[in-house]
Fold these 3 entries.
Entry 1:
Amino acid sequence: MTTTYPIPGAILAGGKSRRMGEDKALLQIGGKPLIGRIANVLQDVCSEVIIVGGESSKFASVGVRWIPDVVTNQGPLGGIQSALMHLKTDTVISACDLPSITPDLIRFLLSRHDILQSQITVARSERTIQPLLGVYSSSCLSQLNAFLGFGGRKVGEFLDMCQVTYVPLQAAFPPFPDDLLFNLNFPIDSALLKQNLS
């Protein structure tokens, strides 16, 4: 069932994909570019979806609006900064290399995002925190601008500066499996995913 929330979503697509050797966002997974799969997930939940960073011509077929990074070469935090500056509101953020996320997982994160308690709400499994899947409040933008202005680039270090809620997948009923936070980094990751989908 589709349940749309009054919150936009942004997909970060400005990475270099050096370890993969090709643009991860455009990997064909199940007959569709990976970024298209993620756009469909966010569209099922969010009021609008944008793609942030990279080259606009690459993403024309996805059918969602593209915006450039405000400042290039600042890593994923630069993409989050650009999204928050452009949308001017709390935003669901997703990296472009999370092939297994679902609309229900996004709804679960939104249900756990309390604007009075947290500036940022991100997903975690038993094994890892996934800071590039979560809800980022516009209230953290001034801190993010300052962090980037002083040369900060590491997402974990920025989260340490903010009020963050880490939502365990196991807190859902029934629990979400850890592999929903699987991200593609290397060619072997892509090969294994395609094998599992075949």
Note: The chain has one domain: 9-197.
Entry 2:
Amino acid sequence: MRSSCHGLCVAIAFTLAACGSLSPTETKPAPEETGTTPGSTPVMGAPAPAATPTPSPDPSASPTPAPGGGGDGADACGEPLPPPVTTMNVKVHLRGAEAWTLDSTPLVGPDGKYCATIGFTDGRSTCAVRPEGNPQRSACELYAIGRAKDTGRAGPTWYKDGQLCTGRTFGCENHPDNQYLLVAYKAGTYSACANNGTCGEVVVDK
């Protein structure tokens, strides 16, 4: 009888122990993820820098114009800088047995004030960029007319019947020493053009 009670008592003790282990344990719910550490102060993004207003152009400022050469030659030309080329005066300069030599001169105006200021005192309103013999003439012509598209030299771009002069076989070639001159071997309509699109032409009927 004692042994049976002993076994029963042991069983009851285990049962009570098991019941005690089933007591619920309090747990704290995990904090929801909010993107911030609990208890910390959220850091706001830095404010965007204020836009810098674009300054208004100064009406008194007068940028240096560049009629033909993109400003090339402006420093050597000096004041007053020539206005845009409006006329290309093209003519036959020499007639040779094998070739003719053509000549071109860029003219500006009508601008009577400019022409008078640079030394033309005969009342003309269309004139060369400087008088013949003026040491500034080459630089002022470069400023006004620009550089030839095919050679890169100071002076006009020459065409025969609308095509660049490429050599004697084609019928014409740029003068070896002066871009304002052209050697014409064949008949045709010859044009000399400034970079602003102003052209002058002459017909060669040799």
Note: The chain is about 20% helix and 25% strand.
Entry 3:
Amino acid sequence: MRAVTWDGRQDVDVADVPEPVIEATTDAIVDVTASGLCGSDLHLYRHLIPGMDRGDILGHEATGVVRETGPDVNTIKVGDTVVVPFNISCGMCAMCRQGLESQCQTTQNTKFHRGGSLFGYTEQYGHIPGCQADTIRVPLANHTTKRIRAETPAHRAVLLADVLPTAWQGVTYAEMEPGMCVAVFGLGPIGQMAARLAGRQGASVIGVDPVAERRAMAERHGATTIDPDVTDDVPGAIVDLTDGLGADRVIDCVGMEAEGSALDSVLQATKVQPSRVTALRHAIDAVRRGGTISILGVYAGPVQAFPLDQLFDKQVALHMGQANVMRWMDDLIPLVEDPADPLDLDDFVTHRLPLESAPYAYDMFQHKRQGAVKVVFEPSPPVTITA
């Protein structure tokens, strides 16, 4: 079968790899109908996070059709269409019973002091082969799959594996109420969806992003936007737009993004989070006193000179963490299965590309070309060989 493999810094390939097989009685084998390209994949692509080996299969978002199940799998059957969330979780431990699948005790990586295992990530998170492949093995399939209607378009269904639940969790953690103002830093895939979900809950949204196409997409869905490349004082602009108060809620969807910064080379060399965490510092300056900051962006490593005194003085609440996908799935499936497409997901998936185009797609997405917001890989058409 074909799969997207990591071959070194900023080097991916689409290679022939062995097909997965059942390894445990709770496994399932799923033929992938769509997989997603995520900003977290770029962290691996750029080798910002250690622990990748050449030939590792990338990707952590998938939907597909069940081909085979182990004898102890009873929540799905062969032929079912399923979403495969990026968390690998048992559904039975104390963490999972609290809806904290990202902290699953069964798949927790205690050697590295990390949470539950993830598809397509480093040894710190289980080193499980990823989802950008023709076929995948799903461990603990009773809880690491979710059935969805077969007629749901795959490019929409795959968004349930990460983007939608991550954005939903961020909005939920922000504890918004109708009429509040929410500032969203970063209008990539997660930021776009967080902005839409916040607006759906009655908030006014201010989005911050330097990419014109991303600002335009957010504006189509009701957001006011700010270009940080032309606005010297982004927090000040947000304060001005909120009658001097600041945003009631701020959602940081940027995290360790540092492309193009002067310290990017340091980050590459040391694999340590640089002092440049502009979005987080702007979030702290932009939120009103007594407000809440919800952090969805990934931070790998310590943040130097963290302004705890400012957070304390402003009485700001922080809420953050890896998304617990299954916790939110039942809330989101109706929005994805609805033929009316209430979240306008067709205006969210900007590129539907064959799996074989992965090297091009990674480069395009990293450099934010061609208006790329969400890239979905679909099975490459079969090659017909004639005599």
Note: Confidence is low (pLDDT under 50) at residues 258-275, 383-387.
